[in-house]
Amino acid sequence: MKLKPTINLSAAISLALICAVSTPLIAAEDLSSCATITTEHKGPPGPPGGKKEESAEEKAVKARMGNTSTLMQTVAIPESVKACAKDSGYDRLVCLTNILKTNVSDEMLKSLQLDYSVATAKKWSNLPAGAFPSRPGVFMGEFSSEQRGVVKAIMQQAASLSDNEGWDEMVQTMNADDYISTVSTDYKAGYSSYNTKIAFLGNPADEGVWQLYWGGHHFAFSNTYKNGKLIGATPSFRGVEPFPSFEMNGMTNIPMLQERDAFADLLNSLSKEQLAEALLEGTYTDVLAGPQADDAIPSEQEGISVAKLNEAQKALLMVAVRKYVGDIDDADAQAYMEKYGAELSETVLGYSGSTDVKCENDYVRIHGPSLWLEFSMESNKSTNKVGNHPHSVWRDIESDYGGQKQ
Fold first, then answer.
1. CA distance 235 to 214
2. Helix or strand or coil: residue 342?
3. Strands (E), 88-232
4. What is the distance between the alpha carbons of residues 290 and 285, in angstroms, rounded to a whole number?
5. Are the C-beta atoms of residues 129 and 198 closer than 8 Å to each other?
6. What is the pTM of this model?
7. What is the mean pLDDT, run by run of 10 residues, along the chain of 406 residues?
């Protein structure tokens, strides 16, 4: 018997109660030392400007959006997943996806299970759901609570279970949108954990190519598999507003604090001479290789060669890299870390702005033969509060979109 999607009134009531009994507090940073600087390098394109008429498909997607919290941190994993108890690793992941596909309506399955194409895989964004309705998949809020429990099991299988990484970071980023919904009047943007999506591009199976996509405001997780093996974990986008911490949905949320601190520790370990060599020309207002900017990675490296860093500094650089690679499951993350470690002599580090990475337009970049990692500080956009928030992207030049071309 198929579980039909339902309007989750309990989630709506829970969110109302949470907002009533706990004030969503923000921990502010001291930005008094931050200077205003002239911007030069712009990031990837934003949403289309002007009053472009929405397509019928975009209107249909927006009509499905909601404004309630999914409270994914407390959703129970259902008994149905015990059918996968004897499986592990990739086999368990496929087993779990089949449970979800079997237990949704035929109409929902049309949005959940899609044909694989790189063109569809490229439809990811850091923007809120209403500003980028082209993302593939089903909204979290469209699932029943039991169905969301299966989604939770799927993502926990594919992602890290460490604190503030992987699945935990996904939950905290969704909590950020629930926070924004308490202070923003722009509901059309779709600020709510309800509007995070999941999709299977291609059929999860032992043979063939498929991608597990999870995405929403400030988050994109895109694992590509071929014949039972992970062949790509990028593009991978991370961001959050508010920053550095906030209280929401019964949690203290700090999903990007450890990433920022890792970059700050790295830059502050450099000598004046090293910093001078690492300094990039101009300023950067956003990451370069963000959504719809797949060809933005420059061919030439800029900054200081990692070969000129001492062993302690190299270790700090790898700590920063691990904050992103470590969002996927441990075995696959280790393979990426070994690859990037072997390429350190051909990798460069660059930055612009301040070394504490807390001011608007502070920017850090690690660029290797295959690794591209960016971290950028933006001004607050959605909370109507003074402050900054991070955008960051991990790309693998060799295996973005699993190295697929079509």
1. 11
2. helix
3. 113-114, 138-139, 197-201, 209-216, 219-226, 229-232
4. 12
5. no
6. 0.91
7. 36 36 67 67 56 85 95 97 97 98 98 98 97 97 98 98 97 97 84 97 98 98 98 98 97 97 98 98 96 97 98 98 97 97 98 97 98 97 92 98 95
